[in-house]
RNA sequence: GGCCCCGUAGCUCAACUGGAUAGAGCAUCCGCCUUCUAAGCGGACGGUUGCAGGUUCGAGCCCUGCCGGGGUCGCCA
């Protein structure tokens, strides 16, 4: 069943069509201001010109048509206001009917996408040997939320972690281990295998070695050269390097999966950059054969610019720089693997859409890759989207650092949030009578909800300030507020079950009941808009609005103490429907609700 | 300098893609617990949407030019 806005859109569209005008003018939306009716249609004003009549007259004609053709008991009023706004107010009965439909709907009132697509989402992007830090958080939770929403909307969606397991950093690590343990068989040219099953390094070793060698590589040409050669040897398939590399990957992945589990995030694929490697030689040959690959300053590039523009030194340069495909060392670059990954996905999944949930700072890079893919005929530019987002900043407005100036590890951040949530819980005396294990679960969920909701409520494109005190301040527009709203409903439903209260058809009379049903009705549109715009904050906003509407209802309309059985039973249904939709909306944001708080 | 993003209440952010009197949360102030979890509810205060033009019935949103902030500009990813 359509939501109310769609039902009313159908009516208004028919009215415009009956007047010989484009039915598209019949779009109906929620009014953004109270006092102007619950819904409005603004189509009369733009339609007035083509109709050649005053907008106000046209609006009156549409309104009259709607009044006579609307199903009985749907609309309480249809009125024209201002220059030609049409304000529509549904009846209490219509809202009661809509509430009943949502309550009975396993999808909690959400519609499905009109055209199901096959979608790949590339997010998180963890790397071998590098612990995840706060920079990975946004990609992970935004990408995960998009995956959940698109899938719920009816699309076929694959989430790919896009594991950073290839390239120069692997060469650095191989050199690092070679320096520390030169006797290992991995470095013996004559040894072709087999190699030991036990990893020669722990995750701690990798995390210790990588930053040291990465820093040294920046200043020491000799080391850089060795690392490049090791990278090349790895990519060429030297057995010892490959075997050692497989240990790096396995050790890292085990640790990373544990961290993602803490965030409640999973992937359909852990495709590494290495998986694209086998395609690179053929791709390069193909690009070359078709004249797209050009020698430039010792490297080989694909030009993707539209035009030439002046540069600061007075010469001219392309408005978009070329994509570097083969380095002067003959190595694959990250643009190379990204391009090959597109080919890989096209061949294995045949998607309609590929979304890249990556830091906004890489916008130029993706523009290059996408244009190259388009020009090479691998995948149309329109199906490639960079879902960029801003950085998580400290209170000084700069990208978040620890007090010591270092990068904060994601695992430490999660520990910190969980600890703070636990402290808050203790201070507030919440859940005091519950067993330790459940209190730990609650603290974890509250902490993760605080973190995720604080992030997802912002439009992803902008940066935001990381302020744990604010996220975990359990007042206002926060994750804990949403959990609290859901938990209170659970509590009511538990008690209703104990008391043997049944639920019945919703009865809408109170203003707070109207507001709650209107909020419930907005779920479908929120889902569609959030999917279309790849914008989880629209769903976050809906969840908050729903929780807020319920809190108002909760305060104004007692449920269990209500003496009138029909009213109580109807309110119980509203509460049940609200809980189902709120839990669903939170699930779409990747947030789990505890049973009690 | 080229390309891209952002300037909205004291602070953090929205605004359904051009609609009416620009909305929330925090902070401040005033009311609500002998009623289902007060981490709550109701109310007040708070704005020349960076500035100046333009497009039209109508602009926070589109166009132009300034001002201010950020990102990025081939062999790391």
Describe the 3D structure.
The protein is of the alpha/beta class and 597 residues long. The chain folds into four domains: 4-90, Arginyl tRNA synthetase N-terminal domain (Gyrase A, domain 2, 2-Layer Sandwich); 126-157 and 269-392, HUPs (Rossmann fold), CATH 3.40.50; 168-263, no CATH class; 410-588, Isoleucyl-tRNA Synthetase, Domain 1 (Orthogonal Bundle), CATH 1.10.730.10. Helices cover 53% and strands 10% of the residues. The chain has 20 helices and 15 strands. It has a four-stranded antiparallel β-sheet with strand order 1-2-4-3. A hairpin with a 2-residue loop joins strand 7 (293-296) and strand 8. Helix 4 packs across helix 20, helix 7 (203-219) crosses helix 8 (221-236) and helix 13 crosses helix 14 (436-456). The model has no long low-confidence stretch (mean pLDDT 92). It binds one RNA strand of 77 nucleotides through helix 2, helix 6, helix 7, strand 11 and helix 11.
Question: Can you summarize this structure?
Answer:
This protein is 53% helix and 10% strand. The chain has 597 residues and is of the alpha/beta class. It folds into 4 domains: 4-90, Gyrase A, domain 2, CATH 3.30.1360; 126-157 and 269-392, Rossmann fold (3-Layer(aba) Sandwich), CATH 3.40.50; 168-263, no CATH class; 410-588, Isoleucyl-tRNA Synthetase, Domain 1 (Orthogonal Bundle).
Counted by DSSP, the helix tally is 20
Give the overall form: globular
Largest sheet: 4 strands, antiparallel
The total strand number stands at: 15
Query: What is the strand content?
Result: 5-15%
